[in-house]
Amino acid sequence: MNKIYNWKLKDTVIIDLFYIISFIGIIILLGIISIIYLMIFIFFYILMNLLLAIICHDCPHQGHFCPGPSQLLFGALLSKKLIKKEKISRKTMRITLVFYVLIGMGNFIFSFIVIIISLWSSLFLITLIPPFCFLIYATIAWPILCPKCSNKENCPVRNFKKYF
Ligand code: SF4
Q: For 125-157, how does the pLDDT look when each residue is reduced to its tens digit (9 = 90+)?
């Protein structure tokens, strides 16, 4: 565990389990529906992480997994390889943050809708597992883990409003 993290592994295992169940559920169920939908989801998921790599360029967690709002995304990890410590303008950050939120949330919400509409008649309650687990994750992970993050004062994702 990186020493700049203020939390322990046990803090996140149970919480992030909900994210993992949701993520794997989306992959499996979209794969059942159509390989095209699956590829669209993966494409936007990678794009979301590339945007996060820009957002996290100045964070002490750059080059590691984020212990704050973006825990299981690999953007912060990727950031060290892609983005050097150069200054990124406030305007670029603002635009990047907007696209990050729209693409990130839009991708998940669109996938949940596709899954429920396409598979409700055959798989019924199983189609609700990914959105239900994601909702639990978003509701409990951010309020519990974000305050333990050593970059909580400066994190652009957590302090989204400061950029507008
Ligand atoms: S704390 Fe914020 S800036 Fe740092 S890695 Fe996480 S999301 Fe990125």
A: 999 999 999 999 888 887 877 887 888 889 999
For ligand 1, atom 6: residue with the closest CA: 66
CA distances from 96 to 24, 82, 99, 107, 146 (A): 26, 15, 5, 16, 21
Max intra-chain CA distance, the chain: 52
| Site to substitute for ligand 1 among 16, 100, 145, 155, most atoms within 8 A of C-beta | 155
Instruction: Name the pTM for this structure.
Output: 0.88
Q: Is 76 in the pocket of ligand 1 (CB under 6 A)?
A: yes
Domain range summary for the chain, segments of one domain joined by +: 9-152
Specify the DSSP element, H or E, that contains 117: helix 90-123
Q: What is the DSSP letter of 69?
A: T
Tell me, using a 6 A CB cutoff, whether residue 56 lines ligand 1.
yes
Q: Tell me how many degrees the CA angle 142-146-150 measures, rounded to the nearest 5.
A: 165
Per residue in 12-65, pLDDT (tens digit) is: 677 788 899 999 999 999 999 999 999 999 999 999 999 999 999 999 888 888
